[in-house]
Amino acid sequence: AFLDRIAAVDGEVHAFLHVDPEGALAAARASDERRAAGRLASPLDGVPVAVKDVLATEGLPTTCGSKILEGWIPPYDATVVARLRAAGLPILGKTNMDEFAMGSSTEHSAYGPTHNPWALDRIPGGSGGGSAAAVAAYEAPLAIGTDTGGSIRQPGAVTGTVGVKPTYGGVSRYGLVAMANSLDQAGPVTRTVLDAALLHEVIAGHDPLDSTSIDQPVPAVVEAARAGASVDLAGLRVGIIRELGGEGYQPGVQERFDEAVELLVQAGAEIVQVSCPSFEHALAAYYLVMPSEASSNLARFDAMRYGLRVVPEGVESPSAEDVMRATRDAGFGDEVKRRIILGTYALSSGYYDAYYGSAQKVRTLISRDFERAFDKADVLVSPTAPTTAFKLGEKLDDPLAMYLNDVATIPANLAGIPGISVPAGLAAEDDLPVGFQVLAPATADDRLYRVGAALE
Ligand code: GLN
């Protein structure tokens, strides 16, 4: 049914870069056999899933939305993908994304943008717009995204889906093509909070192949989500972050946010106001740390190891460097080049302390702001994104306007804490979805699900 739905609507939505009908059907048949034998591998055995094209899938193309990886087929599975397969989830295909996960609209994909199923002339968010749109358009019941600065939560917000960024280290990064290793985290994209929790449990847990993986039991997210709307939040302290809201936020977004807070009060929660003064500098710090790590990571695309190789014309006996230059010039898009240049500059000798070093200090201040806020509150809340889905093309020529979409999501990545975006209804101005963000202390991912479930 999902393959039929993809065939019917993906021409317009363009959520997928690659669909794998044979593989998905073979996995579904194997699941049917397990069901008949009464030996299901997990509660999600047989439920199809779409995977963001930044995760390595053995035998299936993995492009990261870039021309430089066109035609590359990984010889191994990312740990997340291996766990999906082991739990019996058929993989429908790979979803569209901003090139190397750099963007907030999926317009930086080298393979053309994804359209928001709510309004096809609008962006589906980014970088994981393909995963969010696939779920919102009923092309997939579940999807996997990755979140470096908001790429699961912001697409979730603007497509009316649920998106979770787990605690850093909660889900293995092995086989996740790195943009910024200290920020990247894979997580669920779904229609309900319980679906997200079930998927979270499948992909999370310690992995010896990722040195930053947390060696602790997975938080009890399914149990927390099962409470559903009947959940009693008595005694739960919910902190409203003063710096994330008000000026700069679309009125209809703020209205839906206030209404969701009211629902939490009705469920018994106590509201407190918290202030995180260093958040003012979060975006600036992020846009130094992330490009620094990305510029280093992307050095591996050297025309020798993966995908594209362009031999320059008119050069007699081109050197390895000539081939590398021509390949990187043709294979990387403008946004990727911009970040490589920014990152290389920030890391260069003489500038390292002023830029990268300062950004790391700001990062520590942001973690301290969170620690102080979590002394006063058990969870923190904000709108997920300042606006609803904007029009395709609207911010494409203005990188700073594009970067501002992530003001509310980036602090969590800098501090490594978990966050969820849950649908909070439609904005009055444009009838487009609004997301409500909940943040919790590191390894307390279960709190996201408890609060998220109360809002469904
Ligand atoms: N939009 C942010 C960026 O461009 C976040 C991307 C992400 O989370 N992958 O870096």
Automatic annotation (TrEMBL):
Active-site positions on this chain: K52 (charge relay system), S127 (charge relay system), S151 (acyl-ester intermediate)
All copies of domain Amidase, residue ranges: 1-448
Keywords attached to this entry: ATP-binding, Ligase, Nucleotide-binding, Protein biosynthesis, Transferase
GO biological process assignments: translation
Gene Ontology annotations for the cellular component aspect, listed alphabetically: glutamyl-tRNA(Gln) amidotransferase complex
Enzyme class: ligase
Listed EC numbers: 6.3.5.7
InterPro entries xrefs: Amidase (IPR000120), Amidase_CS (IPR020556), Amidase_dom (IPR023631), AS_sf (IPR036928), GatA (IPR004412)
One Pfam family it belongs to: Amidase
Catalytic activity: L-glutamyl-tRNA(Gln) + L-glutamine + ATP + H2O = L-glutaminyl-tRNA(Gln) + L-glutamate + ADP + phosphate + H(+)
GO terms assigned for molecular function: ATP binding; glutaminyl-tRNA synthase (glutamine-hydrolyzing) activity; transferase activity
Domain of life: Bacteria
Family annotation (Gene3D superfamilies): Amidase signature (AS) domain
Full protein name: Glutamyl-tRNA(Gln) amidotransferase subunit A
